[in-house]
Design goal:
47% of the residues lie in helices and 14% in strands. The protein is built from three helices and three strands. A three-stranded antiparallel sheet has the order 1-3-2. Strand 2 (31-33) and strand 3 form a beta hairpin.
């Protein structure tokens, strides 16, 4: 499915300026139809999976209890 640049930025929850930078540096493929840039949503599947995996790992890290300090005596 093809989306406009604005719709793609909203779906990916990224800044529009950053998406435009990716387009200008040819890191994202676009199709121009009637003077409007369209992006295929399938090219972002890997990005979305990776972001979801990283967010899950980060949430697990935040949910992990902080271990109690081991009282180590300094033997000088």
């Amino acid at each position: 499915m093809y989306y406009t640049v604005q719709q793609t930025a909203e779906n990916l929850e990224i800044d529009l300026g950053y998406l435009m930078h990716l387009i200008q540096t040819k890191q994202v493929k676009t199709v121009e139809v009637d003077g409007e840039l369209l992006l295929n949503s399938a090219q972002f599947d890997f990005f979305l999976k990776q972001r979801e995996r990283l967010l899950e790992e980060y949430q697990k890290y935040l949910d992990e209890l902080i271990p109690e300090d081991i009282d180590i005596k300094d033997e000088d």
